[in-house]
């Protein structure tokens, strides 16, 4: 049971004071771990990452029913909320986010000698071993910061098909990576 | 609806769909379980986004923000 909502009734003079306290408790519980994860996707931009964590925890506070979810689910939800905020921010900040096309996975050169490079090799290998249809939707959505609708238009297939292929592709990728010890 | 969990965890649904899926999540045990199972995938894929490339002709996967 998540302790975030416990034992608060009647201790606060105002709703504001109680809200402030609850957000402080959320920070204590999740702030540090969230910041570590978010920094990876903000390119180590600490200020941006701190803003994302704050917005994530405020949204969590507004969805108090979800705070009662079991810890692993609550954590998964918080990470997903934070990721969405980062992606939205990146899309807003970038006037033309897709002007520079990233290389295809096959073209990527990976430097030697670091853990990151090793993980990248393992992930790239796993991605390559998916079917073309599955790999294509992962590349055209997440890896290029595109929504399902945008990718559907580019690929010339219905959005429902993109979602479905993404689902099976992601599940297959998870199976491939599960026991390889890639840092998550 | 259930297969949207992958798009949801990757953050690539449109705003309306994203919110609709969150409401679905409140009611669907199966999707909540899959969300937990898939939650590490995006960061694993980020390894590809942030990998620098060896040549100047090949821009890195990471976008300028």
Automatic annotation (TrEMBL), chain A:
Pfam families: Sigma70_r2, Sigma70_r4. Keywords: DNA-binding, Sigma factor, Transcription, Transcription regulation. PROSITE patterns: SIGMA70_ECF. It comes from the Bacteria. Signal peptide: none annotated. Residues 26-94, 126-175 form the RNA polymerase sigma-70 region domain. One of its GO terms (biological process) is DNA-templated transcription initiation. GO terms for molecular function: DNA binding; sigma factor activity. InterPro entries: RNA_pol_sigma-70-like (IPR039425), RNA_pol_sigma-70_dom (IPR014284), RNA_pol_sigma70_ECF_CS (IPR000838), RNA_pol_sigma70_r2 (IPR007627), RNA_pol_sigma70_r4 (IPR007630), RNA_pol_sigma_r2 (IPR013325), RNA_pol_sigma_r3/r4-like (IPR013324), WH-like_DNA-bd_sf (IPR036388). Belongs to the sigma-70 factor family. ECF subfamily. This is RNA polymerase sigma factor. The lineage of its organism: Bacteria, Bacillati, Actinomycetota, Actinomycetes, Streptosporangiales.
From TrEMBL, chain B:
InterPro entries: Anti_sigma_zinc_sf, Znf_put. Pfam families: zf-HC2. GO terms for molecular function: zinc ion binding. Residues 4-32 form the Putative zinc-finger domain. It comes from the Bacteria. The keyword Thylakoid does not apply. Keywords: Metal-binding, Transcription, Transcription regulation, Zinc, Zinc-finger. It comes from Nonomuraea wenchangensis. The keyword Transport does not apply. This is Putative zinc-finger. Residues 42-65 are annotated as: Disordered.
């Amino acid at each position: 049971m998540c302790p975030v909502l416990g034992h608060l009734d009647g201790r606060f003079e105002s709703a504001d004071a109680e809200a402030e306290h609850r957000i402080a408790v959320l920070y204590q519980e999740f702030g540090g771990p969230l910041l570590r994860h978010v920094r990876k996707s903000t390119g180590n931009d600490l200020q941006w990452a701190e803003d994302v964590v704050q917005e994530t925890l405020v949204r969590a506070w507004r969805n108090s029913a979800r705070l009662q979810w079991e810890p692993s689910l609550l954590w998964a939800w918080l990470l997903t909320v934070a990721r969405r905020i980062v992606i939205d921010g990146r899309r807003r900040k970038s006037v033309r986010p897709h002007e520079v096309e990233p290389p295809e996975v096959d073209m990527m050169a990976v430097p030697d000698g670091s853990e990151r490079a090793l993980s990248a090799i393992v992930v790239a290998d796993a991605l390559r071993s998916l079917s073309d249809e599955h790999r294509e939707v992962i590349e055209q959505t997440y890896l290029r910061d595109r929504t399902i609708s945008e990718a559907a238009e580019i690929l010339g297939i219905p959005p429902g098909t993109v979602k479905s292929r993404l689902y099976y592709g992601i599940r297959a990728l998870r199976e491939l990576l599960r026991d390889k010890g890639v840092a998550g | 609806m259930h297969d949207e969990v992958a798009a949801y965890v990757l953050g690539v649904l449109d705003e309306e769909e994203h919110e609709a899926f969150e409401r679905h999540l409140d009611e669907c045990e199966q999707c909540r379980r899959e969300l937990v199972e898939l939650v590490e995938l995006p960061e694993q894929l980020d390894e590809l986004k942030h990998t620098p490339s060896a040549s100047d002709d090949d821009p890195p996967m990471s976008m300028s923000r």
